[in-house]
Amino acid sequence: MLGLGLLWLACIWIVAGVSGSILPGIAAARPWTYDIVRRVTPLARWDSGWYINLAEAGYWEPPTRVGQETNHAFFPLYPGLMRLIVRTTGIETSLAGNLVSAAALLVALLLFAAWTERNFGESRVVPAVLVLLLFPTSFFFAAVYTEALLLALSLAAVEAFARRRPVIGVIAGVLAGLTRISGLVLAPYLALVAFRARRDAGDSPGRAIKWATLAAASPLAGFGLFCLYFWRRFSDPLLFVTAQHNWSGQAKSILDGPSLIWRGVVEDFQRGRLLGGSPARTFEGLYLLVFLVLAAVLLRQRRHAEALFVFLTVAIVLSSGTFESAGRYVLPAFPAFALLAGLSSRRDLFRSLLVLSAAAQAVYVWAFVHWYWAG
Amino acid sequence: MRRALPFVAAFLAAACHRPPEPYGPVSAFVPVAFRSNNPGRPIWAPKVTLTNTSGAPSSVRLTRWPPDAPDAEERVFDLAPGETCSVPPRIPHGTVSSLFFESRAPFRVSAEIVDRRHLTPSLVVPILSSEDLARPGDRLRVGPLVDTASERSHFCFTFPGVERDAVPFRVRLRLLSPGSETLVHESTFVLTGLPLVIDDPWKRFHVASGTPFDVEVTFLGSARSRPVARGLWVYGITATKATGASRFLETRVTRGSAR
Fold first, then answer.
1. Regions of chain B with pLDDT less than 70
2. Residue A23 covered by a domain
3. Radius of gyration (Cα) for chain B, nearest Å?
4. B16 touches chain A (CB under 8 A)
5. Residues B141 and B214 sit within 8 Å (Cβ to Cβ)
6. How confident is the model at residue A31 (pLDDT cuts 50, 70, 90)?
7. Is residue B188 within 8 angstroms of chain A, CB to CB?
8. Apex A94 CA angle, B231 and A6, nearest 5
């Protein structure tokens, strides 16, 4: 698995490095200042800037108005690790982010292989890892984004509770809660995994529920620590929510999310801009749809916990009111990738899909390097 | 996994940063170069000249930060003995830049910012040496900054472009009543990686409008824990509202070792 992961990382970096010299004339406008653009790696774009800023400068003063974008909308663990590496080695901050992502991905691959083998059998492992790595938006696992870290911590927590190692499970769960809001959807999944593992070990329902509660509480505790920090420093424990709200530039709640998305879809259809106007958003809508279907299939296969996890991961995007970043947000929903790997029984189709997906990923990397929105 | 450790260690060692090699021991720092073309306002343009004061041909390296394009970041001027040349601005419109000159032989730089319509008096820019700049631990004090019916001040954090691999810098800022230690505001923050102008310090630091103060900046070092090559400078400017005439305020440096 490590060899496969390293090979994939090498390929992504080669594609990213080469992309800079392919059609540089049609690159999009760069939203960052000259000094940042000059020093960052090609796999640091868009939201990577917020993580770089957090690693170097920490949290700013709180926002004062709707529409004011501040770095309080980002969780502290990933930039904290970047800062640790930068302060100890002096390497470029974006490169530190890439290193954190790469290390997290390699750990995640080992855990994903173990999880897939336990849940789907040994023959599913390699196809599942290939699907995970070659999914069109998987290049985010190598970029300065939290996807790889969240995936590694989610898998570590799930595997630990499934193997009845609660200390490791709690630590991984807390850290996942400090990584991204998506870490919170782990809570019910961890509860169900811990409950099932305890019952399988012969524990009473009451005792199993206690362990399930502990498991569910761990990512929530991580988020709670984040809120506690904001409370101590800025006297506003819900500053993250405020910052998220301010980012949107409009007054809305999570209940408005699905209707806003629906309105956007209808508008795109009516104006005929599905591919010409906003292709990235159209594809992100498709990824979301695919993952919804995969959640339903998991449910049909009576993999209730996994189905719930995938569904809740999709629900986070639906509650945001926009498809933007959906292709990235679904990446930590690892059970869906193991399920997709079931197509490996149809060899030719599976190979064709992998080649197509890898080609799409290369296009995504080119677009990302050239400052086009890729998720 | 253990086999990979030497490669990881070698990669990190290679990635670790070393400060840029100086071009020569003689240096001059122009803390502000500015050009603008806003309708209805002075058409500011920097007028910078460079003279070889040595008795032999020499070359001088200029580092602009930021330049108007990546290819303008550095330029080497080859000068005959006693030759004077004009330095092309090559800096973006409306953005404060700094110019840093280095050479192995002595040279002289003069800089002023002129209104090309000649309606406003030129602002002569003080030329600093590397030794003038604040090193980590040093304190800079500039003032008084005022906001009255007739005058208004602003200040700016600036540094030579050779610091591009060490920035952003961390500073502790204290606003003090003029000539005293009475604290008006205090904060610690990380500067952007480019010269940072604080146009309206009263609004930025939530100080009552019109309150005069001195700016005291303690240079804490690189936010990326990188070695600082030359240092940091803070300048203040007070402009007369009626005429647009500007003057630099005095900046005093207290060395960290002296405190």
1. 1-20, 258-259
2. no
3. 20
4. yes
5. yes
6. confident
7. no
8. 140
Total number of domains constituting chain A: 1
- Asked if B189's CB is within 8 angstroms of A35's CB, the reply is no
The pLDDT score that the predictor gives to residue A240 is 87
Q: Tell me the chain B residues in contact with residue A56 when contact means C-beta distances shorter than 8 Å.
A: 168, 190, 223-224
Query: Phi/psi of residue B191, each to 5°?
Result: -75, 165
The B196-198 sheet, strands edge to edge: B196-198, B151-158, B233-240, B246-248
Q: What is the DSSP letter of B16?
A: S
Helices A166-177 and A186-200, packing angle to 10 deg: 170
- Distance of alpha carbon A351 from the chain centroid: 25
Measure the CA–CA gap between A102 and A88, rounded to whole angstroms.
18
Report which of A138, A214, A222 is spatially closest to residue A179, judged by C-alpha positions. A222
Q: Closest Cα partner for A129 from A105, A147, A99?
A: A105
Helix (H), strand (E) at residue A290: helix A279-300
Residues of A in contact with B165 (CB under 8 A): 39
Closest CA to A76 of A98, A54, A108: A54
pLDDT (0 to 100) of residue A113: 97
Interval A345-350 mean pLDDT: 93
pLDDT tens for residues A304-330?
999 999 999 999 888 877 777 889 999
A20 contacts on B by Cβ (under 8 Å): none
Helix (H, G, I), strand (E, B) or coil at B175: strand
pLDDT, mean over chain A? 91
Distances (CA, A) of B20 to A6, B133, B221: 32, 17, 16
How distant is the Cα of B168 from the closest Cα of chain A, in angstroms? Answer: 8
Question: Strand B74-79's sheet: what is its strand order?
Answer: B26-33, B97-103, B58-65, B74-79
Q: Is A93 on the interface with B (CB under 8 A)?
A: yes
Q: What is the pLDDT of residues A146-202, one digit of tens each?
A: 999 999 999 999 999 999 999 999 999 999 999 999 889 999 999 999 999 999 999
Q: Which domain range does residue A316 map to? A: 2-18+30-369
Instruction: Check residue B7 and give its pLDDT.
Output: 60
Is A48 a member of any domain? Answer: yes
Please indicate if any CB of chain A lies within 8 Å of the CB of B193.
Answer: yes
Residue A24 lies in a domain: no
pLDDT tens digits for A227-240? 999 999 999 998 88
Put simply, the answer to whether A91 touches B12 (Cβ < 8 Å) is yes
pLDDT over 90 (residue A334)? yes
Q: What is the DSSP string of A118-181?
A: HHH-GGGHHHHHHHHHHSTTGGGGTSSSSHHHHHHHHHHHHHHHHTT-HHHHHHHHHHHHTT-G
CA distance A365 to B178: 54
pLDDT at A282: 79
Region of poorest pLDDT, from A242-246, A355-359, B97-101: A242-246
User: What distance lies between CA B72 and its chain's CA centroid?
Assistant: 18
The verdict on B224 touching A (C-beta cutoff 8 Å) is yes
Helix (H) or strand (E) holding B75: strand B74-79
